[in-house]
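Review form for a predicted model. The reviewer records the input and the model, then writes brief findings.
Reviewer: anonymous (R2)
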Amino acid sequence: MKVAILAGGTGTRLAEETVVRPKPLVEIGNMPILWHVMTSYAQYGFREFVVALGYKGDQIKRYWADYCLLGGSITVDLAEGGIDQAGERPAEDWVVRLIETGEKTGSGGRVKRLSPYLGQETFMLTYTDGLADIDLARLLEFHKKHGRLATLTAVRPPGRFGHLDIVDGRVESFLEKPRHEQGWINGGFFVVEPGVFDYIDGDSDDWAGQILTRLAEDGQLMAYQHESFWQCMDTIQEKNYLDALWQSGNAPWKGGEISPA
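Model under review:
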């Protein structure tokens, strides 16, 4: 099963980083968040990626070209102009297709533009602006059971401020940045049927704002509720938080090798 990744946005809320690089290449623990997202899927046996490029897409193509070339020892034949990797390859056995989808194309339009590369089969879909410890095998199982066109992963966002329990002016308890007790939001990890392409009119369509709304109105959108770790990366503070988790060795999204789904 292929994994479609939307990697063409400008990431304006993370301008400290994205002024010089596309958001998918912003680093968590010296590796781009795009690599972390791919690793999350590869742990469950999903190793074929179709990436929708836009803003500074040339940098993403250059990153993966260099990643392949520089992943091991090489021999450069100056006389013949050849490069030999001596059989060495990067550790990841992934196939990464990098598709230009236009710098101004909406997120829904990018999904539509990937359709020739995704075929008429179920596919995974995600962004490059958040990480989670979602059980992707269970997500796929949930999707297959309900038979609708699309499944989103619903998450409870972490609170932005500490929670206070106050009785008669006295703080009974304090919890730093708790998860909200009520309310779910779109966590950005989807399973999608090719029938969804019919809901996308053109390049300007927005995936979350228009396409998911149309699917919901037709009863074709289901939600897999994920109660565990999820964290977006929309600000420099959130980027630094994810980086600190990785550097600590206790990043919740970091797992071992898992059998294919």
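Findings: Helices lie at 15-18, 33-42, 57-69, 107-113, 115-118, 136-146, 207-217, 236-248.
Further findings: Residues 57-69 form the longest helix (13 residues).
Recommendation: see findings above.
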